[in-house]
Amino acid sequence: MSLPLNWINLFINCISLGNHIYDSVTTEIGQYFSVQEATPFLRLITGNVRLEDSFDLSILNENPMIPQSSLAFYLEGLTREENLAAVVIMNGMTISLVGQNNNIIVMDSHLHGQLGAMSGSLNAGISDHHLVYGVFAVTKSKLKPKIALVKDYKSLDLNELKADMARAPWHIIGALEDIDDSVFVWKSMFKSILDNHIKKRIVKIRDRSLPWMNTEIRKAMNLRYKYLREAHVNPGNNELWCRYKQQRNKVKAMLRKAEAAYWINLFENANSPEDFWKVTNRILKKSKIKKFGPIQDNNGNIITASEQKADYFNDFFLNIALDLTRDLSPLPSDATNFIYKVCPTMSSFSVEWNIVQEIVQKSLNPNKAMGLDNISPRDLKLCESSVVQGLFEICMKSRADCQFPISWKKSQVAAVFKKGNRLDVNNYRPISLLSIPSKILERLVCRSFDNHLTSHSLLSDRQWGFRKGHSTESLLLHLTEVWKEALDDGLKGPPTSKTHCGRLFLF
């Protein structure tokens, strides 16, 4: 019995990419399914591809005139070209093609033993088609651990590090003419001293390792495995099996107790909402770092190459301000109308040694990410006052020359997805990872500006954001007092002078 016409469906991650009719006798494979049609979709694949439906050419496989190999050869070439993880074709009769790591294995009712498998067809008695089955071993690929170069702080002699930092000739930084040269010399000296004291080692980072695992539990697990092997040698010995089960239950109890203690300890040490949600997301297995998927340009084309996506995001973030302000009305040329009083100007900002030391010791967060210069805030915080002299020289030179180092202006930008369609670049926000030393200089300038604006009352009393000592909580407290006073005035005053006070709840 021949089946000259067959329906073919291509599914990628549960998305149907097409439904075609294939005449197995007269039609060539390229007439209904081409590489140009499949390539834009196949490149989006993150898992396996499944081709399913009936393109069985003959139930009994008895017609030698039917070119059964044309589809297999086409998909074999497509698999190799697109470097797919796996291609599985489920036919109405046989499993005709299985690809894993570009190794093509043909399996049908006449080929047994491939992959240690069984396949065939059975007459179920409920259809003119036979029931096709295929059984083959599926091995789960083991995730390769990540290899990382990390600093070994355990063997660090902190006193010697501070002593070498204090003895370094930081004074030569201020003698250089160019501030960029000063930053380069400071960075070279700082990293050289760090490399002499902090050793680096290569470690394997396993995502699935249990953080609550300890030596005691591992020894108990090894003993459990030992008892299991002894019980397998003497399967009729009930005493050995009881001993193994007792050890197995003990290991389970130890694992549960260790896991509970681990999470309880993390929640107890969560001193901020940020720490609390970090622990919560870990329990819920919500990964903060996700792989970047494809994006869509203005013409509707899908971009999958990493370099092209980076260039497109870069152009989008550079031009977003121009795109948003293009339709806005221009500001009036005469800006003097907004000036209602004359105040002293700020000609420079103050740089004091003790303020730089305070920023290094108290304001730097050791858990923050570093910039392109690979200078960690943890390393700066470890050195404390011994590293302040070099930073103080750079800040003094920046104020004297009225220049900001060019290398400190560069940052690593990460596009963070907010909500909506992941293909739309408008749903991403740029996060800049700046150099940590540049933040110290910025904080010095910011302090001087804040003191100048506050001392001359240049800020509005109604500004609650981006001000020291002000926040949304203080705004709510202020509004609450205003509402209470409005209610009191309405109750105490005459009926004609009552103040209307309403409430609006937003959900």
Measured as a percent range, the helix fraction is: 40-55%
The oligomerization state is single chain
Q: What is the tally of beta strands?
A: 14
Major beta sheet summary: 6 strands, mixed
- Helix and strand pattern: EEHEHEEEEEEHHHEHHHEEHHHHEEHH
Instruction: Tell me the β content.
Output: 5-15%
Main sheet strand line-up: 2-1-3-4-5-6
Q: How would you classify the helix and strand content by structural class?
A: alpha+beta
In DSSP terms, counting alpha (H) and pi (I) runs of 4 or more, how many helices?
14
Are there runs of 5+ residues with pLDDT below 50, and where?
1-72, 82-116
InterPro entries: DNA/RNA_pol_sf
Keywords: Nucleotidyltransferase, RNA-directed DNA polymerase, Transferase
Protein name: RNA-directed DNA polymerase from transposon BS
GO molecular function, one term: RNA-directed DNA polymerase activity
Salient structural properties:
six-stranded mixed beta sheet; 14 helices
Report on the structure:
The protein is an alpha+beta fold and 507 residues long. The chain is 41% helix and 15% strand. It is built from 14 helices and 14 strands. It has helices spanning 35-42, 69-82, 158-167, 172-175, 179-197, 215-233, 238-268, 273-283, 306-325, 353-363, 377-383, 388-401, 436-455, 472-492; strands at residues 5-12, 15-23, 49-52, 86-90, 95-100, 103-105, 118-122, 131-135, 146-152, 199-205, 295-296, 302-303, 412-417, 428-433. The strands form five sheets. Strands 2-1-3-4-5-6 form a six-stranded mixed beta sheet, with helices on one face. The protein is extended and about 100 Å long. The model is unreliable at 1-72 and 82-116 (pLDDT under 50).
